[in-house]
Amino acid sequence: MRLTTEQLDQYERDGFLLLPELISASEIAILRDEVERLKGVEADCVIREGRNSAPKILLKLDDPEWPTYSAPFRALSRLERTLGAAQQVLHDDALYMHHCKLNIKSAIEGSVWQWHQDYMQWQLDGIDRPDLVTVMVMLEEATEMSGCLYFLPGTHKIGRIEPYFDESTAYKFMAAPPEQMKDILASHPAPVPITGKPGTAAIFHCNLLHASGHNLSHRDRWHIYMCYNRCDNHPHDVENPRPEWVRSTDWTRLQVEDGEARKESTVIA
Length: 269
Ligand SMILES: O=C(O)CCC(=O)C(=O)O
Fold this sequence. Notes:
The protein contains seven helices and 13 strands. By secondary structure, it is of the alpha+beta class.
């Protein structure tokens, strides 16, 4: 699959692209079985929340060195449809994985992600240029009720906003200061809810403002995020670096691994 010129123009203009049915139903079935298995893994790279300490974020799915490793998720991150699309929007074939994670937003208890740009944190990780892109794939249907993402189109052009450290949720992270965010929301077109069936993907720029709400529905909301960086943009040393599972120091160039001749369902198996 190659992105068209129109899609690449749309990415430049809006800071994101939505790709329904990027991943087939048979591939999603394999990945969902993996989520059921991974939910039971106990490791440092699993972040939990809620009364039952349900897993919220599982990282390092693509790295055989870690207990959360999953061959099907690794295969997903090396597809022409995912890695190839990232190479196209970053105009560079030499990419590595900054991090690869599954966000499980549990039914009823899965909580909000405040407005932020991913590059707010990634610059602090020692990455000099906003030359990163994330490919997100929905493994469950994402609805407004289940806490889908919202993108604020065009905000990747604002540049990086100076963040504050938000401690209001189980996963503390760098977010957009609320007063500034209110001004941005008031002066931009409405945020776009990123809803879709399992297999839908979104590709988004690391400076795009995005957020998601609480999951009020009866179903978990499962999203996989693959965050690609250019190899020549890898982090430089910083004081007190974040752990390896969110800030990879393996900058090995990734190769697209699925050939045109292979059946989709065998690629991820
Ligand atoms: O999964 C979500 O709802 C939001 C996740 C997100 O924005 C992030 O990981 O940066």
